[in-house]
Amino acid sequence: MPKQPTRAKSAQKSPVKIPERIEPLVEAGLVDSVSRQLMSGKEAMIYVVRCGEAVRCAKVYKEANLRSFRQSVDYTEGRRVKNSRRARAMEKGSRYGRKAKEEAWQSTEVDALYRLAAAGVRVPRPYNFIDGVLLMELVTDGEGEPAPRLNDVVLTAEQARGFHRILMGEVVRMLCAGVVHGDLSEYNVLVGNDGPVIIDLPQAVDAAGNNSAEAMLERDVDNLTAYFGRFAPELRTTDYGKEIWSIYESGALQPDVVLTGRFVRSVVPVDVNSVIREIDDVVKEEAARQRYRQALALEK
Length: 300
Description:
Blueprint: H1 23-27, E1 33-40, E2 44-51, E3 54-61, H2 73-76, H3 84-92, H4 95-118, E4 126-130, E5 133-137, H5 157-176, E6 179-180, E7 189-192, E8 195-198, E9 205-206, H6 213-228, H7 240-250, H8 272-299
Antiparallel strand pairs: 1-2, 2-3, 3-5, 4-5, 6-9, 7-8
């Protein structure tokens, strides 16, 4: 485990004014008070909240016009909308459709968290989702403080190798659950007391239903490998992304698969002329069958 950053002990602070967006959770009895704002990201504001005796975090999603991260067809491809009216409205871009699209974008992370948590992936445990606010587990470090992001922790070469190995396993486990993160990097991993925890999944894609899933998975893996390669340079020569996807495509991917970090690319040249000849033969055979049918029809 990487040594946690030393943090100054702060005096106990009184709860802050409850943000308007969190008020529905208070009214529903899910949140008692807001301790403080933890961070403001490109997609959401994060608050530390108290729920009875438990301390959790509330992720308040920003409106589409306030987010720096924009949806694109690469991320939304393959996402299904069960309600046909909502689907048509989203396609037309009407006011109702834009609202429905925003709700669908927000619920993507919620659905992914439940799905991945059930599959044993290291993600924050989700509790509730109300009016664009996600109530979930607060990941903490060894001192009970909010866990730092991976990019804020200095690693030894041994620690980098260990974290890289763990996260490659998590990428595999996610893919076995049919999910590709789509924006995974050192900025979307927390260093919790029990190891790395993957966060920020509103752009997650369905591995089987998105044509960009392979490229996104390879980019996720490359991002992590490049980061850990700063501390353990030998990792830069690995090729886990292509290896993982090739095993997935073969149907043999399992959570406990043993990875090598190597991928052998096919160097056998394609015989284009042979392929063209086969196509021509098929066309000629079909033409002959058509002539035969026509001849039979004339005889009748």
